[in-house]
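Q: I'm writing up a methods section and want to include an example of the input and output format. Could you take the sequence below and give the corresponding predicted structure tokens, formatted cleanly so I can copy it straight into the document?
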Amino acid sequence: MTTVPTAPSPPVSPTSVRPAAVARTGLYALLAANAAVVTLLAVQAGFASNALVVIGRFAGLYGALLMAFQLLLVARLPWLDRRIGMDRLTNWHRWTGFGLLWTLVAHLVFITFGYARSSSLDPVSELVDLAETVEGVLRATVATALILVVGAVSARRARRRLAYETWHFIHLYTYAAVVLAFTHQVAVGTTFTASAAATAYWYTLWITAGAALVTGRLLLPLRRNLRHRLRVEAVVPENDQVVSVYITGRHLDRLPARAGQFFLWRFLTRDRWWQANPYSLSAAPDGTRLRLTVKAAGAGSASLRHLRPGTRVFAEGPYGAFTALHRTRPASLLIAGGVGVTPVRALLEEIDGHAVVVHRVAAERDAVLHDELRQLALAKGADLHLVTGPPVPDRLGPRELAALVPDIAERDVFLCGPPPMMTAVLGTLRELGVPARQIHFERFSLAG
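A: Here is the clean output for your methods example:
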């Protein structure tokens, strides 16, 4: 372990407003308000005499609401992403997806059994009859089947066995399910046509959700890339496995990127243009260039070493809530594991107040960007600790971390590194009594 002691810089007052809490509360309130409107409109439309049909219709209405909410969660809107983070939005998307799956299954089952009770047909025959005779029912059945398939491949066990590209391709069928479900609702939804207010509400809901998706996933990335015209400026090897790529372009001072954020980078070469990979900025944006530093972990990341200056770049973002926007305390602790130092190095460049930086690596030769960290620490009055050694025993356990940072409970903690290390350190922070609101971390997790 090596330590660079320095004099602390004067603290600054962090914001008292918690952006993540504001955004979460806003999303919860939005969903609750729409659920109340859906319930009110359904009650005003009246009830069927069959209780099973009534339950089925409510399940279908709440399923339609959850489907629209799903589109909002994966729209990658900057305001939400900067405050909540793509990883947490993706996690919400996943669990909302399972809720959607069960509401749609309940809708299909209760409606089918309800109508079967009123006829002489068994449930299977009733479903076939509805699909053949009622407009939109067949489309709804296909939509439910697609959601079931997507839900099955999104289960953790199945997800671990599938390549990301395969999972993503299957996931795209969700959009087909959305279209089929909407046309079904328009065709046979009694609540949809019960009143002018109900019709206006549902059209407004779907148009708003669709517009958010198109804006965040298509229009905004296209607009930014047309404005900034990103290109590779230089490729600089850091060591045998790590390379830094410098990106330049036009009007980069207008790009709303912050230290700690990442982009989905697509390098427009003949063999890699179709691959988009999430890489963090390894230096705070300065208005003239961007830098990412990547460790070779596969064919895609290894190929970055061979990029030529002038290569066009299509970047989606910036994304991520791993920024100084979420600070709650004047002092900070930045913990990085391995190449997870890249957003931490950028964050140290931007952050104010006294900071302690802990860089955890297996050996000193793995300490990427450590010379830059040392220079930054000296310039900003931060304390820098390089912690080396094998993963076992844990070099960042409660005793070790408390010895390095005695006032750890009084600091914001920013954490980035390999998942096993992050899990271990999060447990350590809880054991040391660091409040959850002071712990900031983000995992790369993409959806839809």
